[in-house]
Amino acid sequence: MAARKALRKRQRTPAVGGRTMELPKALRNESRLQHDPLYAIPAEMLEALGDRNGGPRLDARAQEVESRLTDHCERVGIVGYEGGRPVQYDLLRSTERDVAIYWDLMQQYNSRAGKPPPSADVHAELRRKLGHLANVPRGFAGWLVTNRGFLAERDTLYRRHHGAIDRYGLPPAGLTWMAYDPRRKPRGKHEAFLCELADFCVRWRLQGMAARDLPVPLGPQVPILQSPIMLRHLNAGGFGMFLPDTFPVPSRDELREIGTAIQAQRLPAHLAGWGKIIRRESDDLGVARYGNMLIVHHVLNALRSRHPRLFPRNIGRIDAAIAHHVGVDCESVRKLRTAIRRRTR
Known about the structure:
Elements: H1 2-11, E1 15-16, E2 19-20, H2 25-28, E3 38-39, H3 43-48, H4 60-76, E4 80-82, E5 85-87, H5 95-112, H6 120-144, H7 148-160, H8 162-168, H9 188-203, E6 206-211, E7 214-217, H10 228-236, H11 252-266, H12 272-278, H13 287-306, H14 315-326, H15 330-344
Antiparallel strand pairs: 1-2, 3-4, 4-5, 6-7
């Protein structure tokens, strides 16, 4: 009972950016949502799992409660709650949604500037670039959450610092490093946790952890931020390149050759499997399929935590609902489930 009261208290989160991320009181008191973590189930999945066309699926009351949670999370821009705290994680969001947002902004800008609307070619290029920017970190996150080495080290980190995590939560991705100073011994349990979290993130090439099962991969930085933690990232993995303004810019092929050569030499053993995937040297799942694996892994965990009776009898219907959400066929979802089970076993 005490733990449940503490969880509800943390769910009463103050407003951020003009939006309150607090879980509405009616949902906090809903017995069907007394779970931690508490993640929203995508709306199209809820519709597909509704009690329609016969057969035992989500009952009407469960679907109504889940829909209210999903609507709330979408409205405030989060994916759910962990430890009673809101979780923001863009990698679970559809790339098409980002394309629509940027496309609308481009149209508004052209209209205000008296320019003609952007062309279909511009839209296609926007989709290509945003898709690439999202697919690689999403794929890497999917590879991590199904990687036994990563999961074992994460679990050790959580066991060692469960008190600090429960009390303070995880620092926002990218801000983990503000309290990190490798020259000074940590003062107190919270700083000790932040220092060990920083070491963990450098080792696994992360900006931080949005939640236990939601790592935030480190992405390209132009220009490179001159912070102590970024220097640690540069020393541990990746490479920086200084190009004087008196020097001609290398061609795309030259830059690719330089980057590929350095990357192949520096990638450590625990990341070698991912290196083969991004260099297309592996017969394993590709980057995009690991991105789909992240989403499948996430929604299956959310469903199992609150609706275990759906499994395994309705796995075909669950596959169909996930396939509709991800945009693949049911057989692809089945193969992804098998791959997740094989990689995490």
